[in-house]
Amino acid sequence: SDHRLSYPIRPDEMDWSDYFPAFFSKKRKFDDEDAVNDDEVEGIQNPSVAGVQMDTKKVEIADIGCGFGGLLISLAPTFPETLILGMEIRTQVTAYVHDRITALRNQCLSGGTKGEGEQEGLEEGESGESESVPGGYQNIGIIRANAMKFLPNFFEKHQLKKMFFCFPDPHFKARKHKARIISPTLIAEYAYILRPGGIIYTITDVENLHLWMAKHLEEHPMFERLTEEEQETDVCVKIMRTDTEEGKKVERNKGSKWVACFRRREDPV
Ligand code: SAM
User: Fold this and answer.
1) Considering its fold, how many domains does the chain have in total?
2) Widest CA span of the chain, in angstroms?
3) Is 204 strand, coil or helix?
4) Which intervals of the chain are annotated as region Disordered (predicted)?
């Protein structure tokens, strides 16, 4: 439960090196005397990526309640220069996604560069090296967190350019609606961490939840809905329709998928 979750006091206290070791060196803990000569704090275990300036990037895309990580893995080569963070509350699911990302990174580092499960068709001696994956999956990370509680501890004002809410838990009963991840209070928080022009993507197979999310986002003064055309030409919409595990399940069961996307407006003068 929540009391076991660790989160930074404020965003600049966050040590991102565990999640994106190619982009962040370990934060030195000044209160830890032993750490001063510890190689780990110097970040030398980091896999260096050519041309990367350490400690300069920030997470800019968040997948809220990312589940088994399908969206992260598809977004990784689509936005190879952007750090993308999955947030998931379930411990075992988080561990699974962590292992999945590590395996993909290692596969890229060792020269086998095709995606998961795509190696089978290769003849002996073929490594698939010609199709390298942009970013080598170094740009995606997963953290165990309750995204309904601590987001402003992780992200500063205007930090994010995209937030995904893919097939969030529907909490069907009226008395449970307050547990929904899109609510007036939380929307205000999302507006704070999203930059002007940033986008909230929502998708669900539950029409009632779709109407709820769209209604609350439409009613919020800091958001405007994307037009049908904007929505349908956005590559992220295409990816989130097909590449999350929940989306695939809905596909198999021939269910409907409801999409609504909203742009964060400029701050009022
Ligand atoms: N987005 C994934 C997909 O489309 O395949 C997973 C969808 S699943 C129905 C909803 C996920 O949200 C679950 O993995 C659940 O553990 C996670 N979740 C629910 N509440 C959360 C919270 N407050 N913070 C982070 N994750 C949460």
Assistant:
1) 1
2) 63
3) strand
4) 109-133
